[in-house]
Amino acid sequence: MKLVARLALYVCLLAAPCVVAAPNPAALNPAEELQCVEGEVGRYGGHLVIGQRSEPKTLNPVTATDAVSREVIGRLMADLITINRASQQSEPGLAKSWTTSADGRTFTLKLRKGIRFSDGHPFDADDVIFSFTVYLDEAVNSPQHDLLIIDGKPLTVTKVDQYTVLFTLSRPYAAAERIFDGLAMLPKHILEKPYREGRFVQSWSLNTPPAEVVGLGPFRVKEYLAGQRIVLERNPYYWKADHDNHRLPYLDELVFLFVGSEDAQVMRFEAGETDMVSRLSSENFALLTKERTRTGSQLVDLGPSLEYNFLVFNLNDLATKKLNIISGKQTWFRDLKFRQAVSAAIDRDSIVRLVYGARGTALWGNVGPGNKLWVNQAIPHPQRSLDASRQLLKSAGFSWNNASQLLDPSGKAVEFSIITSSSNTQRMKMATLVQDDLAHLGMQVHVVPLDFRAMLDRVFQSFDYEAAIMGLGGGDPDPNPEMNVWLSSGSTHLWHLGETQPASDWEREIDQLMQQQMITLNYEKRKRLYNRVQQLIAENLPFVFLATPNVLAGAKAQVGNFHPAVLDHYTLWNADQLYLRTETRGMERAGIR
Amino acid sequence: MRTKMLILLLALVLLHVIVIFAGFIAPYDPGVQNRELPYAPPTRLHFVDASGFHLRPFVYASMLVVDSYQEDRTHEYPVHLFVRGDDYQILGMFRSNAHLFRVDEPAHIFLFGADGFGRDEFSRLLYGGQISLAAGVLATLLSLTTGTIIGTISGYYGKWFDESLMGSAELFLSLPWLYFLIAVRAFLPLHVSPAGTFLLLICVIGLIGWARPARLVRGVVLSARARNYVSAARGFGASDFYLLHRHVFPETFGVLLTQAALLVPQYVAAEATLSFFGLGVSEPVPSWGNMLSTLQQYNVLVSYGWLLAPAGALVVTSVIYWWLADALHSRLKSHSI
Hints:
The complex is a heterodimer. Chain A is of the alpha+beta class.
């Protein structure tokens, strides 16, 4: 007993000088209009360690495009109105309330009074005006810029008083409050100078001194070690509190380790070096589930994600390109019956079982069952039927020779290649299954794994491909972010890019419906319009939809308020409320302390 | 000494015969997917049931219960020898459907388990061996032929021939090949058929490897050329062709044979490396390399150990060849003394 006590003392002595205290939360001030959040009341303290697949590229919320940078930035910054990841509905953020005018064109936002940035500087309407000036500045080239342009006109922002801001849209815009989600409010007192001097794009790189990266999020930067980790510490002035009037966040520090790959993330988690993993593949999820008791972790299967994986045929206009072989094959791809035959021959249940280990859902449309608000339940889910496929091909003039090869009406054997990203093992597996399914129809299909960038280049630039297996979606469940896929002029209108006008009647109808749903404010009416869009897509198969994976995530059992969501960021969206029931040993295992 | 070499040669012949007759020995077609049996573990052969011992082994059908496979003990499926099954071809000439062993459907006999698509790993290993070993042997032939020609010219004619050829050999030896090959693949048309890729693979591996044999052959030719009897023959007016054919070439045979035994396993491994990186033959055609490439995924590596079978096959093949090279080498030495 004595020995144990002495050992414990040694451990304390050893540990004590190494711990650098995180700032304590600032005392509550009655003048502050804090947001009180629902959820379990946690305890202060602790470090949460997370493995990232790569290093963030920037800490600038306006210019960041990659998921890894956004993962970190999302914890440093806050937005005016936010989409609650659990309910998928919008809720107040830095704006404590908002009103919409009767015509749906003006929004009046009331800001929280008395709240401060992570350096203690107060936040008010001037910061909001400044932030939108930056987002709307074409020279900054923010990826969010296009969201703020409605009907070719930018939204206008006017300061009414120190805590009231007026937004005016050029025309009514459905669910307009959702565009505020993810638009970080910037500190004018820090960033105005670099912005005026034209240095905004270069500001807030990873090498910026931590004290200069100032935000309204639950954490602020403490240190960055190139190639190793970035450590965030509590923002002592954060504007949210729990029921018991404790200022959030609970965690002292949030540590992002740069580990390299999904497999490395899983291994680090298994070894107890990290406390949380998200975006798990089903195989890794199964592996971690087996070891759940040994590693003391909680694993959650959240059901279908919003991502949709599909097979797309190249229907681009190749007249100006020298791709004669591909344009010859486009006569098949353009034939709806050919695409229907392909769709009917694909064994989606096998894809779900073999690719996702049954942790996924077959898809027949662009909106999956994970999107409860918008899915069109009337879309048929026909069983796989090779007979139906053969009938369709026969009626389109295809035939079979003695070696049961499929021949097109002109007698040419049907043979094409499917490109897919070699780094995505799941889509590679899908391609191999589709290849085998189509071989039953006598089609000779080659699977060509390509480097992800090389594949994107072929799909978006050179159009030098025949078919591809890709995935889209996963962001917001609302139909508006899907506009760029389904509008014939959209930048992600993958199967036929750069259409000056709709290439077919159904594409014209989709254009009209999408435009109309964008300005319809009533949910029921929008739903009817979007249902019709989904129906048109399912009938005309510009994409042959395959399947969607489930959202799978895990954390140490000690992590409290762990409520992963199907929307990005799956596990850290409520980082301000996460807490550790007991301290984990991730930091020591990872060799940080 | 002699017996060791004989045993090794026999083992080598056996290995190649097994692989050539893959169609007969493998119970299944390597491309057939059993989608209900992904990652099925190796099938256990049973000899004993409730009624006692059976000389003829039998298996049980596998079924997936939640996350693991179990044997369905309600029905036994005896292993039949010499039965009819899927069609196959041997050497692209003889068609047949006779198989060495098989069990009745719905049971399967997966001696080395199944991969992620429920394809029989044992059958794929044998068929994959056809690609991998053929690639090794053909590429060796190609690289030895090229190497011999270049080495002979270089050694026999000397002067600037020698300097330029050996200079480029050094250049070839110092190039970072993997990156070069990845770059070459990017320039090829999108879909090259599996046969086309195979030929390309052989050419690439074979042509890259000419430098080392060329240098060896050059050395031998250089010393042979200076022999007294060669000079004498030249004095009698023998042509270059006669000298090379009659006196110089025979000297190189030993070196070439040893080189061949060393190069084959090296090229089999090269094929595996290229296929591992997706530069070799593509799905669904198996090769040892592309079979191993699924092990790049951590969870597969730790959960499904039987998928390492191609690595075992690679080791066995390499060891046999290396021992043979060793035996050849010592035999050669004892002869020359």
